[in-house]
Design goal:
Blueprint: H1 8-19, H2 23-30, H3 34-42, H4 50-60, H5 64-67
Helix pairs in contact: 1-3, 2-3
């Protein structure tokens, strides 16, 4: 039986909001354009590169495993 994968975007948005950061603040902290964060959150881009995901996890205070939905 296949496991259903939860979308990354809503999960990222919850983590970002829980950290109290705006998309613009998060983008600046991880070194990407704010549009990249918005596209991840809305599902227009599915997943960041691994190095960016590692920065996301560090800035949001979670492990890379917890960054996965």
């Amino acid at each position: 039986m296949a496991t259903k994968v939860k979308p990354f975007g809503p999960h990222l948005r919850r983590l970002r909001e829980r950290s109290g950061k705006t998309p613009e603040q998060l983008a600046e902290l991880i070194g990407v354009h704010p549009m990249a964060v918005r596209k991840w959150e809305t599902g227009q881009r599915l997943w960041p590169r691994l190095d960016v995901a590692a920065r996301l996890a560090r800035v949001l205070g979670v492990s890379l495993e917890k960054l996965l939905p």
